[in-house]
Write a structure and sequence with these properties.
By secondary structure, this protein is α/β, with parallel strands linked by helices. It is built from 24 helices and 32 strands. The chain folds into four domains: about 170 residues, Rossmann fold; about 80 residues, Orthogonal Bundle (6-phosphogluconate dehydrogenase C-terminal fold); about 210 residues, Enolpyruvate transferase domain (UDP-n-acetylglucosamine1-carboxyvinyl-transferase, Chain, Alpha-beta prism), CATH 3.65.10.10; about 210 residues, Enolpyruvate transferase domain (UDP-n-acetylglucosamine1-carboxyvinyl-transferase, Chain, Alpha-beta prism), CATH 3.65.10.10. It has a six-stranded parallel β-sheet, sandwiched between helices. Strands 30-31-10-32 form a four-stranded mixed β-sheet. Helix 22 links the parallel strand 30 and strand 31. The longest helix has 29 residues. It is globular, with a radius of gyration of 30 Å. The two termini are about 30 Å apart. The structure holds shikimate-3-phosphate. The site of shikimate-3-phosphate (S3P) has 10 residues, from helix 16. Monomer.
Length: about 750
């Protein structure tokens, strides 16, 4: 039984929402007593008879008397009058909230009646409803798994906020907090405007045909689209009048866009229609996924996926892992900037590369797909991007943010680049500083972190840059900026890093001069559309290379794996450790070498990892640490401080995870020492939202002695959609919870 959060809850207005809240509070025993007042005595009587409330009161004041929570659940426009009746009876300690669809209007009504917004006034809005109305439709389950938005002011009393939040959570809802202004803008766009359009469309059509005969021929699309035109007219007239300013802004925006479509139809501008429709289709699909909690703009931190692995197993099969992430990002970028249509196959449909794809759609590029890894990009030319309407959200991807920074520095418009929590912590000074030296104007948040605000219309000049760290992202960023710069831009790297940008630029007919450790481009050229076959990602294959090496009786073949010499560090290192990896069918496809890999169980031994292999295996160290833990003898890694600024601090997070399984290691500033031959126990590991950490511990289970649970695994979808299924199919005893 719950300890009641409140003594006496007074609900003013016993309609669908007020009644459902009262019923939920009673059902969950969240208050000792629930009382209500409504202008309709019949509704009050029904409330008692239906068990929705304990007591019906005969006036607002009588209901509010002695209440420690007062919920205003009357139509928005009646709020001020009701507040005037509440005021004399309201205790100082009571929390006052509401359930209205517009929040600035509630705040204005409170200020009008009380003079100010006290610390215990917390506006609220449950995003739940039903076509039915009235207390007879009250349903204690109405809020289960729905969102409730609270819009506390700055000076809110924290304890009161927590209490109200707990009440809603007790009713099964998920509580979000945001500002009043933001709430009203968001609702104007996502709820109010669609209702207005539905009302207006049905009215227009009904008016065109007095007999309404037209509706007889209306198909499912019309029915779906106009369902909300059957909503309560009184309530909606209230909402529009109360949220006037925000609604007017989105109506104007929509009217402008509708006019543009009208013009496009009038002038037979098919390209414009295709652009808008394909962008909208992608947005809609991605919204559908979001609703089921899968899409790349899902706040991954709100979605909890847990991996649970049973110990042991062996790895067998013949598989192809998804497309290379680095190449997928670049294929969209160069395809968008090229003249002509670029066809991409084997594209990684992971959240990071999908975010890049969406960002280009937001800049006016028509992109069809992805459809089973097939993407068709209608390039707009090097100077054809258009200003996006808002910030470009790049999810979890450092690569996207750093490459975009170069590519956008010289555009004739401003842009803002944002990302998820992990990306928001990553250093961007490494690209912002050299770009500034070229003439770019870029603001970062404190410490050189995202968001990046890029001021467009800058004339860039080529520079020569000696990179202080071996980073393909920095190199690629500067080469992309170099396409727009006056003169030559050259970059020298302290050690070889992946060269996909250089290879792909050549594939698009843009010459890259390469000499030793230096690559350079001259600005002012154009790109020609190309065909790209994205190989399977060696970074994703790496989990299976280690898995089949450490698990007994394994024999696994990985097809079409990218074997770019700047990426094969993981194979070199595993072979030095004694792994059995055969490279078969080596071939070159679209400027990138690929091969099939056959890997069998082997007894691994610890090694000193050669430092020159570090940049060539930079993303594979988490799973190599697992190999090291299973090897005989000590493994030492040095010169890998870059690992500390990846999606997580991969040295510390791996050491902590291994420790949770009883595996010792010694963390150093730029690496780690892992004594081999250790027993892996079971345990619970926190992946810190890092996809590669999560997958590494899934691999570790093959040699563990107990169950391994890994928390915070949703981000695996950024680089490896379908990982769990493929891992299970080949021999890892894995289950994902919360997907
Ligand atoms: C990448 C470069 C590497 C790598 C990242 C992808 C790229 O980052 O870790 O996953 O696509 O250019 P750094 O350039 O920061 O080393």
């Amino acid at each position: 039984m719950n300890t009641p959060l409140f003594q006496r809850v007074a609900v003013i207005g016993l309609g669908l929402i007020g009644g459902s809240l009262a019923a939920a509070i009673r059902q969950q025993q969240l208050a000792v007593e629930v009382v209500a007042y409504d202008r309709e005595a019949d509704d009050l009587r029904a409330g008692v008879a239906l068990g929705v409330i304990d007591t019906a009161e005969t006036s607002v004041a009588a209901a509010v008397q002695g209440a420690d929570l007062v919920v205003v659940a009357v139509p928005v426009r009646a709020t001020e009058a009701v507040l005037a009746e509440i005021r004399p009876a309201l205790s100082d300690q009571a929390i006052l909230t509401d359930v209205g669809s517009t929040k600035a209007s509630f705040v204005a009504a409170v200020e009008a009646v009380f003079g100010q917004l006290g610390p215990r006034v917390i506006p609220g809005h449950p995003i739940a409803g039903s076509e039915k109305s009235g207390v007879h439709a009250a349903n204690p389950e109405l809020f289960a798994n729905h969102k409730v938005i609270l819009t506390p002011a700055e000076g809110v009393d924290g304890a009161s906020f927590e209490r109200l939040k707990s009440l809603w959570e007790g009713c099964g809802a998920r509580v979000l907090a945001m500002s009043v202004g933001y709430h009203d803008e968001v609702l104007a766009a996502t709820s109010h405007l669609p209702h207005l359009i539905a009302f207006s469309l049905v009215d227009t059509l009904a008016g065109e045909d007095q007999n309404m005969d037209i509706f007889r021929y209306a198909a499912g699309g019309f029915r779906d689209f106009t369902r909300i035109a059957a909503s309560d007219p009184v309530m909606w007239h209230d909402i529009f009048l109360s949220n006037r300013d925000a609604v007017l802004r989105v109506i104007d925006h929509f009217s402008r866009d509708l006019d543009q479509l009208r013009d496009a139809i009038e002038h037979q501008d098919g390209a414009m229609l295709l652009r808008v429709f394909s962008r909208a289709k992608a947005a809609r699909e991605h919204f559908t996924k979001m609703l089921s909690g899968q899409a790349y703009v899902t706040d991954m931190n709100q979605k909890q996926v847990t991996f649970r692995m049973q110990p042991g197993g062996s790895m067998n099969g013949d598989i192809r892992v998804p497309g290379d992430k680095s190449i997928s990002h670049r294929s969209i970028m160069l395809g968008a900037l090229a003249d002509g249509v670029t066809e991409v196959r084997g594209f990684l449909e992971g959240e990071d590369s999908l975010a890049t794809l969406q960002a280009f759609r937001d800049m006016g590029v028509t992109i069809e797909g992805p459809d089973n890894g097939h993407v068709r990009i209608h390039g707009v030319g090097i100077d054809g991007l258009q200003a996006p309407r808002g910030p470009l959200y790049l999810g979890n991807s450092g690569t996207a943010m750093r490459l975009f920074a170069g590519l956008l520095a010289a555009q004739p418009f401003d842009t803002e680049l944002t990302g998820d929590e992990s990306l928001s912590r990553r250093p961007m000074g490494r690209v912002a500083d050299p770009l500034r030296a070229m003439g770019a104007v870029i603001d970062t948040a404190e410490g050189g972190r995202p968001p990046l605000k890029i001021h467009g219309s800058q004339a860039l000049t080529g520079i020569h840059y000696e990179m202080p760290v071996a980073s393909a992202q920095v190199k690629s960023c500067l080469l992309l900026a170099g396409l727009y710069a006056e003169g030559a831009t050259s970059v020298t790297e302290p050690a070889p890093t992946r060269d996909h940008t250089e290879r792909m630029l050549e594939g698009f007919g843009y010459h890259v001069h390469r000499k030793g450790a230096t690559s350079s481009v001259s600005g002012g050229g154009r790109l020609t559309a190309s065909e790209i076959d994205v190989p399977a990602d060696i970074s994703s294959a790496a989990f299976f290379l280690v898995a089949a090496s450490i698990a007994p009786e394994s024999d696994l073949t990985l097809r079409h794996v990218g074997m770019n010499p700047t990426r094969v560090g993981v194979i070199n290192i595993l072979r030095l450790m004694g792994a059995s990896i055969e490279v078969l069918n080596e071939r070159e496809i679209g400027g990138e070498p690929v091969a099939d890999l056959r890997v069998r169980s082997a007894t691994l031994r610890g090694i000193d990892i050669p430092e020159d292999q570090v940049p060539l295996a930079i993303d594979e160290f988490p799973v190599l640490f697992v190999a090291a833990a299973c090897a005989e003898g000590e493994t030492v890694l040095r010169g890998a401080e870059e690992l500390r600024v990846k999606e997580s601090d991969r040295i510390q997070v791996m050491a902590d995870g291994l420790a949770a399984l009883g595996v010792e290691s010694t963390v150093t500033a730029d690496g780690i020492v892992i004594p081999g031959g250790q027993r892996l126990g079971g345990g619970t590991v926190d992946s810190h939202g890092d996809h590669r950490i999560a997958m590494s511990f899934a691999v570790a289970s093959l040699r563990a002695e107990g169950e391994i649970v890994v928390n915070d695994c949703a981000n695996v979808a950024t680089s490896f959609p379908g990982f769990v299924e493929l891992a299970r199919e080949t021999g890892i005893q894995i289950a994902a919870e919360g997907e």
